[in-house]
Amino acid sequence: MLDQVGSTETIGEKTYRRIRSDIIFGRLTPGQKLRLERLSAQYETSIATLRELLNRLLVEGLIVAEGQRGFEVMPVSPERWHEIAAMRELLECHALRQSIESGDVEWEGRVVAAHHKLAAMEKQLLSGDRSQTETWKRYDWEFHHALISCCGSKALLDAHSAIFDKYLRYQIIAVVFRGEAAAREHRELLKAALKRDADAAAAVLVKHIRDCVQYTLKSGALAP
Predict the structure, then answer these.
(1) Contact 222, 81 (CB under 8 A)
(2) Is the pLDDT score of 3 beyond 80?
(3) Cβ-count burial of 44 within 10 angstroms (0-12 exposed, 13-18 middle, 19+ buried)?
(4) What is the DSSP letter of 54?
(5) What is the pTM of this model?
(6) What is the Cα–Cα distance from 157 to 221, expressed in whole angstroms?
C-alpha cells in the first residue's frame, strides 16, 4: 500500500517529482551514480520505491542503467543536444502553428501574461542578477507552453513537455542566457503570435532554438 501525501499525491509520486527536478536542474549531475542507499536517505524513501521511480526515469531517458551496477544520471553530449533541440523544434513549431490558428482571446491573455513574467525575469538577468535561475527557466517554460496551449492535442503537449525538460536540462547545465538576443526573440515571438503570423513566429522560434544550441556549444560547457 502506498503512503499518501495529503489526499491526492503519494509519497512515491512526490519523491519522483523531486528526483526528476533534481536531474533537470542539475542538482543530480550528468553521469552521477545513483546509489540506492544514499538516495534512500536523501529522499527518505524505501529502496523498493526508489527502484520503481528510477525505472520510470529510465523510460523517460533521464537516467541510464549500468547493467548490474545500478543507475546513473544521463550524461550530456553535443550530439544528444542536437537531437533534443531538433525534436523540440519539430514539435513546438507544429504546435505553435496550430495554436496560432485556433487560439482565442483567452489564449492571447495567457500568452501576454506569461511573457510579462518572463520579460521581468530577463530584465533582472540583464542587470547581472542570476540568483533566480530556476524561476527564470520556469517562466521561460510557461511562455512557450502558453504559445502552444491551443494546439488541440494533449498528446502533442505531453510530447513537447517531455522534450522541453530534456532541453532545459542542457540549458541549466550550461547556464545559458544569451542576453538581449534571447529577450528580443521572445518579444518577436509574442508580436508574431498576437498578429497571428504563424510563418513569422515559426521562423523566430527556429532561430531561437538553433542559436541557443550554437551558443551552448561555443561556450564549451558540454566538452568532455
Answers:
(1) yes
(2) no
(3) exposed
(4) H
(5) 0.88
(6) 29
Residue 130 identity (one-letter amino acid): R
pLDDT the model gives residue 52: 93
Domain boundaries, the chain: 4-73, 78-219
What is the 8-class DSSP label of residue 69?
A: G
Judging by beta carbons within 10 Å of its beta carbon (0-12, 13-18, 19+), is residue 15 exposed, middle or buried?
Answer: buried
Give the CATH class of 78-219: mainly alpha
Distance of alpha carbon 138 from alpha carbon 127, whole angstroms? 19
CATH 1.25.40.10 fits 4-73, yes or no: no
Q: Give the mean pLDDT of 88-103.
A: 98
Q: Which of 6-15, 175-184, 201-210 shows the lowest per-residue confidence on average (mean pLDDT)?
A: 6-15
* Rounded percentage of the chain residues whose pLDDT exceeds 70: 95
Q: Closest by alpha carbon to 202, among 111, 102, 90?
A: 90
Closest by CA to 210, choosing from 35, 77, 64, 93, is 93
According to DSSP, the residues that pair with 73 across neighbouring strands are: 63
The C-alpha cell 510563418 sits at 199
Q: Which grid cell sits at 74?
A: 544521463
End-to-end alpha carbon distance in the chain: 44
* Structure-block grid coordinates of residue 22: 533534481
* Contact indicator for 210, 85 with CB cutoff of 8 Å: yes
Q: How far is CA 33 from the centre of its chain?
A: 22
Q: Are 119 and 111 in contact (CB under 8 A)?
A: no
Q: Residue 143: which pLDDT band, with cuts at 50, 70 and 90?
A: very high
